[in-house]
Amino acid sequence: MDPKWTRVIAIVVIVAVVIAGVAFYYVRNRSSSSCSLTSKNPLIVDQAETPDNPDPAATFTTPGWALVQQVYQGMVNYNGSSTTTFVPVLAHDWTTSNGNLTWTFHLRSGVTFSNGDPYNAYVQWFTMYRTLVMNQPPTFILGENFALPPNLNASQMANDLNNFNFENPTSNQLAVMMAPNQSFQVVNNLTIQLNLGMGYLGNLPYTYLLATLSAPTAFAVDPVAIQQNKGVTPNSTNDWMALNMLGTGQYTLQGTFSTTGSGYELQPNANYWGKVAAAQEPWNNMIQPAHVAIQVEFQGNSQVAIQDLKSGAAATASFAYLGPAEVAQLQGLSCVNVQPLDVVYGSTSGAWWIYMNQNTFPFNNISVREAVVHAIDYPEIIGTAFGGAATQWVGPVPPGYPYYNPANLPAYAYNVTQAQQEIASSPCKANACVGTVLNYMYLNVGDEWFNAAKILQANLATIGITINPVGVSLPQLYAEQPVDPMTSVCTAQEKSAGLGPFPIGQEFYTSDYIAPDDWTQNNAATNGSANYCMSAYADGTVNNLVYAAAGESNPANLTSDYTTITQRMYANYTDAWLVVPTQFSIYNPLLHGFVENPMASAEPFSILFNTQSAS
Fold it and tell me: Considering the domain 49-295, what is its CATH architecture?
């Protein structure tokens, strides 16, 4: 089972400072002169969700990434708001060779962790192999292209990681790190070579490698501190790293981290290595020193967060979910900006569809599936559940991403006549399926999705399909996605804990990095985490194209690949592609200096807090 589903588990329905379910586009403040903030240093951020783990090799949640990105750094990261270009961070440049299968990164000199321990190519080698050895949910991000050396198993590699001297390695240790035919190969103390083609994608020159290296799994960690605190254990986390943070980044965590605490405080790193480099590269926002401290308050109560925004007690806030009623309160605040963002932000946060399991009657019949996609009143669902602030889409690649719907296929239309014609050509003709009650799983987080389920129930009744809407919580929805390890049966397709089976239901995916294959590997490939137990769509041609496209760089070929993938799923009526909610950033107008990016986890849609301050 592709482990990407756990990233979906951890990223909430609507992430960081975003809103789904809004009838308005945006409201900017009439004036900021009368606005105030209770604190400008530290800046106060109300955050709905608690980070899972502050270890870069283990964190797999939006709030977890938001924290980790402030303290740890990788070799590269996104260039401002761009999703396709990258800037140097711990590396100062890189080159490719061998048909883009070999990437050589030249690292900056003088980089240190906040405690003064040095960063070098040996540390980067340790970092990336540590991620593979630990084998936690986000490991797949590196595992796509990289693997342990062919002559070492996880226990043997852990032994090396726990015993090598990564400041001044011996000649024997250097020989191991510099050996060819391994994924991560040290060239010298400031040069490391990444050799693609050893991961589960196979021998492909992966197009979106820099995007994957911008994820925390490649962020540098201190070997000295880890060796002194229980080291590296295969298939396991590190208790010390789950409480303490020691990175090269712009911030240090005050004290130890606690998932049960009230929040956390980040202080500018007094020993930050990047001050000189930042002055030389003023265009590079990813290495600029931090301006002010950040105080994140865990605040799950949306009404308290709204009050904090209104009073100036918080500079910005994140919400797990807000409906139109709460948004109306935000729009009414004189000192809060509510700004809509491009559709790519919505796609990254989560695009939604209705799956129909092709292994289950009546959805094993294509005419039934075609009838369903045309029986759904998409405009009414968008208007009711999202107040109009959402976009219908054509999957599997979401809007705003490279190679979205290349042939410009029209979204499935609400057409009752066509739906009834299709059902008349199916085993469900003449209301033959009315008596078969099908459980429909939907996310029960408010009236919006409940109303959407009721609309769908009425829509499908017009073609003789009877569904029983069953509201589930986020944890329950996530629990339905994988294969049950005890029975090897898809959880969603069996009765468990009083739920299911769910031959039809609501499904979504959120991005690990911005790449079309991050979606198609999950909602188009046979074993995809958002497909295998849900739609159960299986098409050998699509499978081949999904992985071929991941290693393709020719735009014409990519257009052809994603056109075919989209057309085949479209004609199969695999899913009723539903909505991409509009996302918003919400902040006090006195807050400035943030750099928005669709893959950002901190508020408001910023990768780092470092450039932020308040006037």
Answer: 3-Layer(aba) Sandwich (3.40)
